[in-house]
Amino acid sequence: MSTHKSSQEIPEGPIPSIVTRRSQMLITTTALIGKRVKPQIFINSVDDIKSFGLIAQHSPSTLLGVRDLTVSIPLNVGYNPRMLRANISPCLNIVQLRLTLPQNTPSTVFRLLTFNHLKRFYTNLPHRVLFTFLSRHPTITDLALEGCSRPANCPLRGVELPLLDKLQCPARCFAAIAVGRAVGTARVKLSRVGSTTFAAMGVLAACPVEALSIDFHDDDHDILGRIAVNMPNLRKLKLTEKSCAKRRADYARRSWNDLDAWHTALLRFSELSILEVYTAATVSTDSRSEGEVVNGWAKGTNINSVAHPSLRRVTILQKRGGPEESLTTWLREEAVGWARAWAPLKEIFVV
């Protein structure tokens, strides 16, 4: 097995032969369980790769039932990419593939890998090693990517994914990947301090986006207004605040502090039903409860204000004077107005 080298790519090398008493027992066990291989498989170590390889080599047909495959190798551990590729290639019917691998993994880890039913693909690998693999899988509808080594000129520009509906990636790469796509659900991440969401929102304006999860800097006081201008037809919106202390002059002010301004901006989303706000600050104050904040966003504070016509749910993740975070959800009830929901509710974005 190769060892990790931080300055070089991981060498592929030959697939080592594993012939031990324990291996033979595993082979026999695999032959006995046959079709009982589970549809969801997790590979979390180099030893797991080897064990999984025993099934791939001696009973590959049993892997046709695998639908969901997750490979998560510690980022500081050396492994053999050729072995991994050979061992997962028999999983021809997978629908969901998650790969978390060391950053110096070569692009050859994907050589000739084809999964004709693949719909959901998530990985942390740099975008420069993904173009060919993604191009071979036009069936992908859900794509989640981490940081890009060249965000100014993302290598995935022009990749053909005609069925892409749900996209999560850094803001600087969003325009390169999403342009011309009918993306319905978007997750725009700020991976760098200097990143902005301007370019991504420009592209999203031309997409039929109904659900948006987007990062914003804590000094971006007009984030909601800019989203409303570009995507007024959103049904679900999640805003995740990212601290940017070096850019901030006013640590107390937040975009949502002005209740009437936020109410006005929210009214531009005529079909919005779910709003989520994640912040490192505290929404409520000694003089203003969380319920009053939510009512202010939804109905305004003026006597002549108009209540939002479609907003039904507001979820807030915030700090409460310490390191602990508090997640609360408020629901609009026709008879009593806005009331806190005490039962846990599923988040709208679980990418």
Strand order of the largest sheet: 1-2-3-4-5-6-7-8-9-10-11-12-13
Q: Which term fits the overall shape? A: elongated
Largest pleated sheet: 13 strands, mixed
Low-confidence stretches: 1-25, 27-35, 247-251
What would you report as the Rg, rounded to the nearest angstrom? 24 Å
- Through-space gap between termini: 33 Å
DSSP E strands, number: 13
Order of helices and strands: HEHEHEEHEEHEHEHEHEHEEE
Structure annotation, total helices: 9
- Beta-strand portion reads 15-25%
Measured as a percent range, the helix fraction is 10-25%
Q: What would the average pLDDT be, to the nearest integer? A: 81
Assembly type of the chains comes to: single chain
Explain this structure.
The chain has a domain at 212-351. The protein contains nine helices and 13 strands. The chain has helices at 21-33, 46-58, 81-88, 131-135, 171-178, 198-204, 223-230, 259-267, 290-299; strands at 40-43, 68-72, 96-100, 120-123, 142-145, 166-170, 185-189, 211-217, 236-242, 274-278, 313-319, 325-333, 337-341. A 13-stranded mixed β-sheet has the order 1-2-3-4-5-6-7-8-9-10-11-12-13. Helix 6 (198-204) links the parallel strand 7 and strand 8 (211-217). Helix 5 packs parallel to helix 6.
